[in-house]
TrEMBL record:
<dbReference type="GO" id="GO:0007114">
    <property type="term" value="P:cell budding"/>
</dbReference>
<dbReference type="GO" id="GO:0001403">
    <property type="term" value="P:invasive growth in response to glucose limitation"/>
</dbReference>
<feature type="modified residue" description="1-thioglycine">
    <location>
        <position position="101"/>
    </location>
</feature>
<keyword id="KW-0833">Ubl conjugation pathway</keyword>
<keyword id="KW-0963">Cytoplasm</keyword>
<keyword id="KW-0819">tRNA processing</keyword>
<dbReference type="GO" id="GO:0031386">
    <property type="term" value="F:protein tag activity"/>
</dbReference>
<comment type="function">
    <text>Acts as a sulfur carrier required for 2-thiolation of mcm(5)S(2)U at tRNA wobble positions of cytosolic tRNA(Lys), tRNA(Glu) and tRNA(Gln). Serves as sulfur donor in tRNA 2-thiolation reaction by being thiocarboxylated (-COSH) at its C-terminus by the MOCS3 homolog UBA4. The sulfur is then transferred to tRNA to form 2-thiolation of mcm(5)S(2)U. Prior mcm(5) tRNA modification by the elongator complex is required for 2-thiolation. Also acts as a ubiquitin-like protein (UBL) that is covalently conjugated via an isopeptide bond to lysine residues of target proteins such as AHP1.</text>
</comment>
<feature type="cross-link" description="Glycyl lysine isopeptide (Gly-Lys) (interchain with K-? in acceptor proteins)">
    <location>
        <position position="101"/>
    </location>
</feature>
<comment type="pathway">
    <text>tRNA modification; 5-methoxycarbonylmethyl-2-thiouridine-tRNA biosynthesis.</text>
</comment>
<dbReference type="InterPro" id="IPR015221">
    <property type="entry name" value="Urm1"/>
</dbReference>
<dbReference type="GO" id="GO:0042803">
    <property type="term" value="F:protein homodimerization activity"/>
</dbReference>
<dbReference type="GO" id="GO:0032447">
    <property type="term" value="P:protein urmylation"/>
</dbReference>
<comment type="similarity">
    <text>Belongs to the URM1 family.</text>
</comment>
<dbReference type="GO" id="GO:0034599">
    <property type="term" value="P:cellular response to oxidative stress"/>
</dbReference>
<keyword id="KW-1017">Isopeptide bond</keyword>
<dbReference type="InterPro" id="IPR012675">
    <property type="entry name" value="Beta-grasp_dom_sf"/>
</dbReference>
Amino acid sequence: MAIKVKVEFLGGLDVISSGVREHKLSVPLEEGEATLKDLVDYITNTIITDPKDIPVFIEDDTVRPGILVLINDTDWELEGGEDYVIESGDVFTFTSTLHGG
């Protein structure tokens, strides 16, 4: 059964998903077993449209430093990071804190 979640890309990070800031996803993973790491892999394989943009999002097999990750408006570090078990209805927000200028 699929898990329904919302994924948001903010702070200019929407450039990696063809300018789309909000994605309502039906992720083909098992609820109660799938982790945020699984979701990040799914995002990398399905939402990021240009392979050259993957390093903007991923570094050393995890979300790159400089990207704030929120799970239901709470810092992912407080929720277990990549080991957080995702549930239907969760909202994941990825915000770049790196700005050119």
